[in-house]
Amino acid sequence: MTSSNRSQAVDVQRSYEIRTYGCQMNVHDSERLSGLLEGAGYVRAPAGADGDADVVVFNTCAVRENADNKLYGNLGRLAPMKTKRPGMQIAVGGCLAQKDRDTIVTRAPWVDVVFGTHNIGKLPVLLERARVLEEAQVEIAESLEAFPSTLPTRRESAYAAWVSISVGCNNTCTFCIVPALRGKEKDRRPGDILAEIEALVSEGVCEITLLGQNVNAYGSDIGDREAFSKLLRACGRIEGLERVRFTSPHPRDFTDDVIAAMAETPNVMPQLHMPLQSGSDAILKAMRRSYRQERFLGIIGKVRAALPHAAISTDIIVGFPGETEEDFEQTMHTVREARFANAFTFQYSKRPGTPAATMDGQIPKKVVQERYERLVALQEEISWDENKKQVGRTLDVMVAEGEGRKDGATHRLSGRAPDNRLVHFTKPDTEVRPGDVVTVDITYAAPHHLLAEGPVAAVRRTRAGDAWQKRQDAPVAKPAGVMLGLPQIGVPEPLPAAVAPGCSPG
User: Fold this and answer.
1) To which H or E segment does residue 414 belong?
2) What pLDDT is recorded for position 12?
3) pLDDT score recorded for residue 498
4) In the prediction, which pLDDT does 7 show?
5) How far, in Å, CA of 81 to CA of 329, rounded?
6) pLDDT at 6
7) DSSP output for 160-201
8) Which positions make up the binding site for [4Fe-4S] cluster?
């Protein structure tokens, strides 16, 4: 093929598949990657394509110790598929790509594109360049080229949306490599954030989740310590915005003005995800976490005083280097005192490139496993007890899509309460759509969900439900051929979005 032929539009529908690993940041980045590819003329491959696509993109995470093994295993499984499918391309992006830029193409020479966390907007151009030049393209930016929210986004939900307020992190936790891969914190201007939210609401979105690596540190980059609480209050003034959530905050930056804003802003939901990591002061110090057990429990107490029905969740790492049985018991004590609605519990694993990976006192796997099982059993008991307190309450539940795996068999629907607890409820005679709100009485509690087995008390059809219905009824537009020129990049027509905690465990 001559270069002049290569520069023409290919009048075919090239399909793409994106495989996402890691935190909500990666999930939202994948929405942007989808928007970029579809803006360049690609069409999404059917669900369950499992590599049967013209372009397969891995959006990777570097948090877990064996992240690279999983990546190279998946890449290895695609190698024979690529041999049989002429023109197929494979791209690797995200945190692991940022970290292992020099080794991915060496270990998997069939990869066509490697891009980092700071330049996701370049993916269509890099795919084109790899196709034209017939050689792998590796491009890793060392700092953010443009705030990602300026990129086109194919949002997964019509009724709930992620909204990034910052990227990067200024903390130096010894177990976490994320700051080295996503850089120092960079905040968006409040006006830009609110404009994006208002655009989403105008399209029917009724729930947004403010997203940041350290979301409540927002303002440090723009010199305003109360910027986050002001942002929450500003969200409360947006007409049509029914639910506001945020993740993940850091105890160091969780100030009284944020608690007051949560309590005094009606559409800020009574839910808080507050990473503990350890209940031991000694281990917190070794982790370089800038709070101690007393400070953490003090925050929890203040939140509960201001928001009595708040559901509080957390992240906990078991088996950090040097953790003694006494240290672990301090974590168990903190869990008993805090009474989390649920906890994301992790067995410590080395993250290459972090200080903790080379610390003395690495804990044997058997010991870590035994402690982990004790912690999970305790938290399971507390979660169930806390859920039982919901029995008899009347809750407004926003109907969700894909939350109840057994809904078809049980003739139920599922949704989220204001505090984000999962509720399964009896399917009413009246049609309800994702984004609509039902009023139900809770009759039964399990550790990880609630049941409303009686009739639905009320159904409120919403603009969010209308937006979901509009998306379902819309004809599938035939995409333009893939243009082998610069893709369209800019502020997209705002489409509605999806929901989930930040870089765990963090």
Assistant:
1) strand 412-416
2) 63
3) 34
4) 37
5) 50
6) 39
7) EEEEE-EES-----TT--HHHHH-S-EEPPHHHHHHHHHHHH
8) 23, 61, 95, 169, 173, 176
The pLDDT of residue 476 = 57
- What single letter denotes the amino acid at residue 149? S
Least Cα distance to 318 among 285, 279, 292 occurs for 279
Inter-residue contact 430 to 462 (CB < 8 Å): no
Residue numbers in the known binding site are 23, 61, 95, 169, 173, 176
Q: What mean pLDDT do residues 202-211 have?
A: 94
> Taking the model in full, what pTM does it have?
0.79
In whole angstroms, what is the distance from residue 215 CA to residue 211 CA? 6
Edge-to-edge order in the sheet of strand 271-273: 271-273, 311-318, 342-347
Q: Which one, of 239, 301, 247, lies nearest residue 266 by Cα?
A: 239
Burial 398-422 (b: 16+ CB within 10 A, else e): bbbbebbeeeeeeebbbbbbbbbbb
Q: How far is Cα 136 from Cα 149, in angstroms, rounded to an integer?
A: 27
- 70-114 residue pLDDT tens: 888 889 999 999 988 889 999 998 888 888 877 888 899 999 999
Collapsing DSSP states into helix, strand and coil, what is residue 226? coil
